[in-house]
Structure prediction request, 381 residues.
Amino acid sequence: PACAETYRADTYHLIRAGLVGGKGVPDTVTGHPTLFVTLTAPSFGTVHTRRKHNGKVQPCHARRNAATCPHGRVMSCTERHSKDDPRLGEPLCPDCYDYTGSVLFNALAPLLWKRFADSVRRHLAKTGGLALKELRHHLTLSFAKVAEYQRRGVVHFHAVIRLDGPDGPATTPPAWATADALTQAVQHAAHAVTATAPAHEDRPERALRWGSQLDIRPITLNGDLTEQAVAGYIAKYATKAAECVGTLDRRINPLDNLEAFNLRAHARRLIATCLHLGALDELAELRLADWAHMLGFRGHFSTRSRRYSTTLGELRAAREHHARDNDITTGRLPLFDEDTVLVISEWEYAAKGHSAGDQLLAAAITGTPSPTAQHAVESRP
Prediction:
């Protein structure tokens, strides 16, 4: 199978093991408080969107007496966009859209997540009447998350967040560490944490934060949000990049002509903004030019805490052992002891130098007669 499909399947089993057990995780983990959390990005301007209400597609941005932006565009759209409409995610007025804020948010999203997780731990410690340094002796915050690109070109995170005892999933959390306590900690952290973008050019430093849309749902074994649905959802986005935005799948050289690529106008402006800001000394540490093809985001798409469940390396090793055992069972490989070296092929030294054809080619390049040609001349009658 394709590498992406193998990675997706491994991610599925990694996420599911942390919800129902298996792969070295005890099945008692099902009794631990676990939430499925979606953290979104803030708005950087009005974009074309597709919404449904009671199964019916709603108008994009139907507004009476809609205002006209400073660039002369009416900020309204009455169309009911289809799923494949290329305008989805495009701003109603590109000149009003905050492209700088969009790429800076992508660049700072990993830092924003770190501060979010730290804030959740602090809030949980306060709930349990503990100092932060004492929390690890009573509780472990375990998580697995994936980053997803929205059509407008910014990332948001889907995360499975679980409370364990001090030794991970094999131990139960304290009685006060409930799903409600975790929900309150997530709500507090999502609205409290910020990441500051440095001042640059004539713009002052700005604090970036999560968007107002926050989705928190408990994960159950037999409900609307089962462990299979969550694992499949996260695994699907673990193999997707920024292709839905219309960008490239490779790094972009600052000297490249963006007009020569088949890019959406919105994606082209996001990339151009990354290249422009990446050349500024004040923003050099964000490496925006290196990650312009990812619209500024330079984090890993799929990450997890150390004690969430198994690892991808362990899953790959188990798959290799299974394939080897299957080959032995079916007779493709003989049964040997582990210390036996099986030689599949053998190489022997033949000679050094050019072949007959390479000798003629080398002689033509260097202007010196080859031994083969010289021998042919000397053997003439």
